[in-house]
Amino acid sequence: MSEAQRYFKQGLDLYNKNHDREAIEAFLQAIRINPDYAEAYFRLGLAYAVVDQKEEAKEAHRKAIEAYKKFVRSNPNDAAAHFNMGEAYSRLSQYDEAVKAYKQALRLQPDDSDMYYELGVAHIKLAQYQEAVAALEKASEIDADNHRASDELEKARQGLKRREAILKQQEEALRRQEEEALQQQNSNLASTSPSPAASPSPLMSPKPSATPIRQAP
User: Fold this and answer.
1) What is the pTM (predicted TM-score) of this model?
2) Which of 116-120, 148-152, 175-179 has the highest mean pLDDT?
3) For labelling alongside 103, which of 36, 83, 93, 176 has CA 20 to 30 A away?
4) What spatial distance separates the first Cα and last Cα of the chain, rounded to whole Å?
């Protein structure tokens, strides 16, 4: 175990015992020794978040993402690295990128309930409820005791119902608008049609000339 790894392990132990500020110092020491230590940046971000140092947490997660990108270029089959990169993206509310990272992790480790759970949660954040339902159903199928997945699955199904109801309302409103526009068009055509020219009544005699007709001498 390298010196950086020893500090990292120390940080994990402190973090798990809720000694968050001491954990931060240990993670920072690991990073000083190894500036490319992706997981140390990631755990540092989690520890900063616990002590409500939000900006420091964001910066640590941004650096974690950069370090993970560098790591997976030479270790493309490391599922945990792709997953943790997705977690870092989620902490930054970059859910589109998180989904990509989670999916890559699942290609490498397709039987992981927790990965499907996190993928489902990211889809919910993006209001992609159909995709969320599929991911969370898979999480529950792999691990029936994954109660977090069951809870989020219910949220996803409710979201999907709301989305379908909204789409139905929008379709109905569009249909009414089209009908009203057609009625207005027909009304406009009727009002602008020319009236037929009036013809003299056949029962009326022609008006006599005002000039008397002269008789021949």
Assistant:
1) 0.76
2) 116-120
3) 36
4) 148
Dihedral angle, C-alpha 32, 35, 38, 40, nearest 10 °? 0
Instruction: Name the CATH topology of 111-174.
Output: 1.25.40
Classify 1-85 by CATH class. mainly alpha
In the chain, where the domains are located: 1-85, 111-174
Q: What is the pLDDT of residue 202?
A: 53
In angstroms, the CA 113 to CA 131 distance is 15
* Helix ranges restricted to H, 17-146: 20-33, 38-50, 54-74, 79-91, 95-108, 113-125, 129-142
- Given a contact cutoff of 8 angstroms between Cβ atoms, the answer to whether 52 and 81 are in contact is no
- Is residue 201's pLDDT more than 60? no
